[in-house]
Amino acid sequence: MNKAIPAQATPAQAARRPPSRALRTLTRWMFYSHLWLGVSVAFLVILISITGVLLNHKRGLGLMPDAGAAPAGAFAASLPLPVLASRAAGFVTPEIAASGIDRMDVRPGKGLIKVRFKDSRITEVTLALHDGALLGSGVRSDSFIEQLHSGDVFGDSGYLLSDLAALGLILIAFSGFWMWLYPHSRVR
Amino acid sequence: MSLLVFLFGLFAVPLGMLLSCHRFKRRTRRQRRMLWGMVAGYGVSLLVVLLVSLVPPVMWMPATGLRSFLVHWSLALLPALGVLIAFVTNPRADGGQST
Cα–Cα distance between A90 and A54 in angstroms, integer? Predict the structure, then answer.
């Protein structure tokens, strides 16, 4: 039999007061949201976490080629972009060159340009801006991991998967916090 | 199609597992074995997809058909395989009685 709790209850008495029906309902909702969301977005969160760690350490893990030291050259004396693109294509195999250029990343301060191809391995060639000399060439593995991290690899709307995982994670954190606040409310 | 299967494996299969595990103790021995097979299959598929998608880190192109297949289909096929194995390899022919 439950003892009646006086209206002017001490904090200790209030803590022993049985939770209201509304509180139990809300806690039950939080519990099941936590459970279902946790299972639903677990893989995405794990994938995003692992790719995030890999991206943080991409240089140490050798996931991107080293550009080396760029020679001094005035930015105003840079070669035109079509010429640099043609030079870059000359430093890779014909198959990679035929895949086309994905992007050209100009670094005026460093006097270099990074030409990235659209092949499956994502090859990148680094050239000096002023004379088109080869500074480095290699595979940009971090680019694929970046696409996996953002969800772009799953298609044009793939980023929505990342959004879904992020939203799920926020709700899981909120529901977990709620259950931490009210751990003794029975949910079953 | 592959993307749909991937999304199915990513969201529908875990939810299906959660639903199937409801009132787990009331399930028959065989049903419980099948559920465990599903859970184990999904666990293995998570490892497979993570490893295959990240090592080596290159794009999934038509030239990498097996890789693309493993990434997109493992989450759906391996749990089904786990269920099938549990269904076929029932060591006790107890008729599926509940304990």
Answer: 31
